[in-house]
């Protein structure tokens, strides 16, 4: 299925520490996960530089009328600051893979969790990160990987609602290895994540369709699940 390419430009309110809260954020890859209160979802900063930041999230947050809803972001920073206006562009959405790519025309941001390269072997400290029920700060839940398929990674722990689009992160290597998608509603009731391989294919296709041009450079169809699932 060909990804739906969106080129709408939105005014975005970037909240430096979430509703002006003066809260220190630890220098962890988990701090690269931002809140999208306008869409009830999360996303991860995977690349950031002067004037341009890429965020990877889920596609199901942008279904229907939500495709045109202005996007607001709450961005973790070391110390609270004043809210600021920026612009964002929804670069690519692939509903089959349940992935989205957002360009924030601001940066560099202080925290980033780049996508792991092909062939990456995860470390021992794997966490699932996002904003359950849109509460601040983000939940950082240890994740136990149980199984892989070409399209999906399954964990023992189930993510909460609002964590959709957040990151499955390898803290040992400081990188993203999956995107929160949902959980099974029957059987083992496992957590469900878009796989690392699917993320890489999505980003490679996005880069190719955009001619590999900057800004920014990009980091080097979901099959049916065996059991019913619910998005977060």
Shape: globular
Secondary structural class: mainly beta
Helix content: under 10%
Radius of gyration from the CA trace? 16 Å
Q: What order do the helices and strands follow?
A: EEEEEEEEEEEEEEHE
Kindly state the number of beta strands: 15
What is the CA–CA distance across the termini? 23 Å
**What is the strand content?**
35-45%
Number of H/I helices? 1
Low-pLDDT segments: 1-11, 15-26, 213-228
Mean of pLDDT: 81
The biggest beta sheet reads: 8 strands, antiparallel
Structural write-up:
With 232 residues, the chain is mostly beta strands. Helix content is 6%, strand content 36%. The strands form two sheets. Strands 8, 9, 10, 11, 12, 13, 14 and 15 form an eight-stranded antiparallel beta sheet that branches. A seven-stranded mixed beta sheet has the order 2-3-4-7-6-1-5, covered by helices on one side.
């Amino acid at each position: 299925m060909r990804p739906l390419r969106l080129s709408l430009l939105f005014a975005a309110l970037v909240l430096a520490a979430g509703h002006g809260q003066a809260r220190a954020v630890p220098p962890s890859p988990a701090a690269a996960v931002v809140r999208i209160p306008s869409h009830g979802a999360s996303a991860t900063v995977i690349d950031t530089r002067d004037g341009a930041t890429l965020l990877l999230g889920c596609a199901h947050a942008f279904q229907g009328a939500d495709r045109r809803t202005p996007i607001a972001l709450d961005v973790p920073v070391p110390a609270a600051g004043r809210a600021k206006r920026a612009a964002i562009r929804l670069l690519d959405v692939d509903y089959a893979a349940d992935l989205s790519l957002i360009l924030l025309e601001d940066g560099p941001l202080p925290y980033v969790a780049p996508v792991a390269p092909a062939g990456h072997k995860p470390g021992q400290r794997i966490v699932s990160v996002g904003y359950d029920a849109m509460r601040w700060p983000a939940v950082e839940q240890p994740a136990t990987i149980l199984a892989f398929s070409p399209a999906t990674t399954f964990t023992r722990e189930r993510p909460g609602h609002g964590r959709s689009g957040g990151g499955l992160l390898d803290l040992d290597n400081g990188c993203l290895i999956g995107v929160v998608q949902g959980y099974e509603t029957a059987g083992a009731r496992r957590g469900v994540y878009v796989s690392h391989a699917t993320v890489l294919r999505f980003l490679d296709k996005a880069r190719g369709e955009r001619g590999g041009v900057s800004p920014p450079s990009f980091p080097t169809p979901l099959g049916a699940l065996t059991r019913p699932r619910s998005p977060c």
